[in-house]
Amino acid sequence: MNLDWDFIVESLPLYGEAMWLTLKIAFFAILFSLVVGLLCSIVLYYKVKGISGIIVAYIELSRNTPLLVQLYFLYYGFTKIGLHMSEMTCAIVGMTFLGGGYMAEAFRGGIEAVSKTQTESGLSLGLSKIQLARYVILPQAFTISVPSLGANAIFLLKETSIVGAIALLDLMNVAKDLIGMYYKTTESLILLVLAYLVLLLPLSILLTWVERKVRYAEFGD
User: Which residues cross the membrane (predicted)?
Assistant: First the structure.
């Protein structure tokens, strides 16, 4: 296979800029998704009247509609009612909306896996609901949820390939533009695969390390 190495070298800065954009979107989307997911799971655990139903509806809506539809709704639909967001903001909000639902389910699974006897023990010691959540339930739930949270983080990073639909020059858009302009399909796709590998592999290794650390801290080797 003959590759145009000059084209590959000249294209590297474009992929570098797109990787930086992808990292920024993924970082904020994962961070905000964790916050949204944790809050939603706590509301569901305590079955807060009047809000639990809304949270369940949000989770089902976010998980059962494509990210592309959500982005179009935010970017084009909100503009119709006078709410305009920049492409970057729209991408982060859309991915947070999607990721929050998945993170909520991951946290919920971890919370429900905490033994009832530990909850009862905490209550018998006189802990309030907030203290019970802070010192007993959430630390154990987080340990149990780490694999699911990590999988969701990787999923969100890969989903950034959709944000090109709202005019952001992400990795996928860069590859498509280069293929359209120069017909260097093989070189462009190789660079695209390598770029995602550079982004995803360190994250995957980091999450595996974190999972081992928290499991060791909780259960020992």
Answer: 20-46, 189-210
Q: How far apart are CA 217 and CA 46, in angstroms?
A: 27
- The pair of structure tokens assigned to 108 is 């919920």
Both structure tokens of 13: 């800065």
Question: What DSSP string runs through 103-114?
Answer: HHHHHHHHHHHS
Quick check: 199 and 157 in contact, CB under 8 A?
yes
State pTM to two decimals: 0.87
Cα distances (angstroms) measured from residue 70 to each of 12, 49, 89, 162, 186: 31, 28, 13, 11, 31
Residues 37 and 63: beta-carbon distance below 8 Å:
no
Model confidence over 31-75: pLDDT tens digits? Answer: 999 999 999 998 998 888 889 999 999 999 999 999 999 999 998
Burial class (CB in 10 A: 0-12, 13-18, 19+), 137: buried
Number of H helices, E strands in the chain: 10, 0
State both tokens at 200.
Answer: 């995803």
| The total number of residues written for the chain in this structure | 221
Torsion over CA of 196, 201, 203 and 204, rounded to 10 degrees? 130
Give ∠ CA 17-189-86 in degrees, rounded to 5.
35
